[in-house]
Amino acid sequence: MLEKYISAAAGREKAELVLKNAAYLDVFCGVIRKGDIAVVGGKIVGIGSYEGEKELDVSHLTVLPGYIDGHVHIESSQLSPEEFASLIVPRGTTTIIADPHEITNVCGKAGCEYIAKASENVPLDVKIQLPSCVPATPFETSGAVLNGKDTEAILKEGYIYGLGEFMNYPGVINCDADVIKKLEAAHARGKIIDGHAPAVYGETLNAYLCGGISTDHECVYKEEIDEKISKGMYVHIRHGSSTQNLGNAKCMTSANMRRFILCTDDRHAADLKEKGHLDDALRRLVADGVDPIAAVTCATLNCAECYGLKYKGAIAPFWAADLVVVDNLKNFNAKYVFKDGKLVAKDGKPLFDTSKRYLPENVLNTVHVKTLKPEDFTLTLKGKKAKAMTIEPGGVVTGCEIVEVQSVNGDVDVKGTDILKMAVVERHKMTGNIGKGLFKGYGFKGGAMGITIAHDSHNIILLGDDNAALATAANKLKEIGGGMVLVNSATGEVDSVTLDIGGLMSSRDAEGLQRDSKALIEKAYSMGVKRELEAFMSLAFLSLAVIPKLKLLDTGLFDVEKFSFTDINAE
Amino acid sequence: MLEKYISAAAGREKAELVLKNAAYLDVFCGVIRKGDIAVVGGKIVGIGSYEGEKELDVSHLTVLPGYIDGHVHIESSQLSPEEFASLIVPRGTTTIIADPHEITNVCGKAGCEYIAKASENVPLDVKIQLPSCVPATPFETSGAVLNGKDTEAILKEGYIYGLGEFMNYPGVINCDADVIKKLEAAHARGKIIDGHAPAVYGETLNAYLCGGISTDHECVYKEEIDEKISKGMYVHIRHGSSTQNLGNAKCMTSANMRRFILCTDDRHAADLKEKGHLDDALRRLVADGVDPIAAVTCATLNCAECYGLKYKGAIAPFWAADLVVVDNLKNFNAKYVFKDGKLVAKDGKPLFDTSKRYLPENVLNTVHVKTLKPEDFTLTLKGKKAKAMTIEPGGVVTGCEIVEVQSVNGDVDVKGTDILKMAVVERHKMTGNIGKGLFKGYGFKGGAMGITIAHDSHNIILLGDDNAALATAANKLKEIGGGMVLVNSATGEVDSVTLDIGGLMSSRDAEGLQRDSKALIEKAYSMGVKRELEAFMSLAFLSLAVIPKLKLLDTGLFDVEKFSFTDINAE
Question: What was the ipTM of the complex prediction?
């Protein structure tokens, strides 16, 4: 193959494809240059004056390296990898570092394999990071457990690129034996390990880094970013749906710029479809005053360097012909996207078929619960005062507020208040576990709502003011094999959207799913859910016991700061 | 081991060593920070406030990452790897990318093995690049031939890090089958390939890069540097003895800075001892106005990134405790040098033993010639006009000048002119080959001088104005097993310095070798060698058929630009 590249580069043979009259971004020097870009066999072979078998005039457009998403959970799109690709590739993303943390928590290793195999038939380079925290904490019931030994075994499989975000930072810092085994297994195979250590500083951060952890996408404070970069981490600039830290880009200097990379982490299909993927991050960054060339470099070369992706992230001879042709560096509208030298999207539309889905049995039918009754949701308190969960702006960090509630016949009655009953129903192993709690400030009234996406163990999470509606919601989720549900006590209506893949993702096309989801979400808002919240997806973070402060697990109410269970009674 | 790092980082256990009150360079952010640097088991484990079993107060000093030489031929020091380390480690260099091109051209694979094994007992990380051009051209006689198949086989051996400088750029550009085999063998094993493509531009450069070649240390022109960096190459800033391009640093911008790395390529023992190694490059760069932090970053992080040296080139938790403690960022005097956390040099002196040398038989006794007679140096021309080699400032590029010479009895007589006879005597395979030519402007008179270092095939190269002296010089080199020789026709004196390892390097200590070499060099200058030339080392480049313009090989006079032999007769 080298001969073909070299012969075309030297002009002795015609290139397969030439982008004529390109203005292109040279990420190495941070300038826009001009030339014809010649492509052979999936690689750029030359920039200069070239002729090709096919030629595409790109005058007045700007050619950029294909974007690389440094950290993404495909599951958060609620789409299959094929359909996910159909949304992000036309936006200019050609490579992702995918951490199938969610589906692996539901389906174990089969979840990883599914994401890897389903990605094979789409023109998107998907590097799989083996989830490091399955389950995320030992306190809850997940669908699978991957211990150190499992991790070591799976890391040997060819399709695993690295080790996913190490959220169990206390485990690292305190040298938990199984954590150490996972880290050492990754180092033994030279794998990069992603980090997750919000607001960890000083000697504690040093200890975390001594696990050999390379990145952090949870940074938000300037001093945190500075310290993490100074200690060798790459810091993500994140453009998720719920979690955003585009402001991190304000901490970039010409000296530290190479240590910033872009990612989306968790991004919904609706945002992907309506706003975009990394193209939207770039648009927003540039609108915020970030130098467009620096921004694109974070999304390309920097990310490739961080993850050791050789010959990716730049436009140069011998580098991958993963290219996005945009209108300009303000709007970043992708006119053409090339993956390995092939035109795979045009004017925002994919040119590849995603109708064939890889759908193995072992990621389907994952909601295993007994049929629930209204009395399963009875919540008996010792007195009137109880701890209620609240939600902070941003939708991931929760608070704890002492509230006063009424009880009737030994069961909390929240009707007509701004407080809801909350329940987490274990759905993997039929344990019958139901964690119960209270939530203040969601706004929802007159029924129940629920979802089988509940980070990170993905049990059923429910909110409601009516035991019967809560039971109906849970039973509906069982019936449809996972998804989102909304029960209106007054009308008796039960609406739902099915997420058949692990209870997390839909095997349908993005458009249908999005239309139905949107309708359901609007219905939830019409039942009072506050507009500043994501109607269903904000629910999904209320079980996430690695993010402060108060969370609800299938096993009970959990104080993240004390890292232990806590009593709901506050008197 | 991770537990030990983490426990010390967290402050639960004392570190093995702490550099207290350090001002240290954070290469990620380009700033000097302060803190105690804690070290355990060869790694930095933390920066902050630490206690150690051993503590060293470094107040008023500055701690830098150990320097990395991005491209060096140890052989050019004329020292064994052990002795070479004893000179450069105390200067602050802790890692080198070594290309044993010279000794491999003499001894084949055994030369590579020798450098690798001899380096094992010194506190210097030596990454071996397998020479890609053995011989450098097919036109000359070298001691060994490594073809594509050989290259493929040797690359599989664990000690080989990458593929050395690909000087045969016409071979790459023209898809020479054996060249392609070498390149593909390197790519198949994910090896980095060093480049060497002076003044190659445009589509020709594209073709060269399509070989998958990553670096260039031959750059000198701004437009050349810009183009090479824009096309994905790392560009070396070189501080050799004969070859210098420190001026390349003037082309650094904040955007392209990460693509510059430092190297020495070829540097004599005398320079290493008297002026220094990369410390001297840094001193010179800073004196020339280069930002000291940028300069050190080129010598550390950038080089580590270029060569994929994980956790090297920065001061951060989990990174190698390869550290140099300097007085300041102007003088770069190394007060302490740590390799893998161990103090290995202090105040410019090595603290390790280099007296035990690894000296395998297969790199000794490498001068294989028959005894030569004066008449072997007879040079018969067709007329008076002939091509004479000249030397350009810098000492590597040669020119061609048409000169008029006298002949007596069918033999050129150069006595009393500024022209010398030149001879290249094949010394590996007893072929009896003697290439003959003329040289103008060396200044030497009254005898002969010679050396067994003659890039890249390392035959015997001789200059002189007296056939008897030329024969004596060659015979003396045979007798001593390689080295440098100076014959004074008037006094009959024959002085020499022995280079017993491959005829290139001495197994002696640096001090003794340097003293004797200096005396010999001074004697050569006293016999007229121009002071702007390196008395003997300038000779060593007159056979180098990959650098313009006129060169002399054992097989005859060679026009590099035409890449073919040329007739000495100019009428």
Answer: 0.92
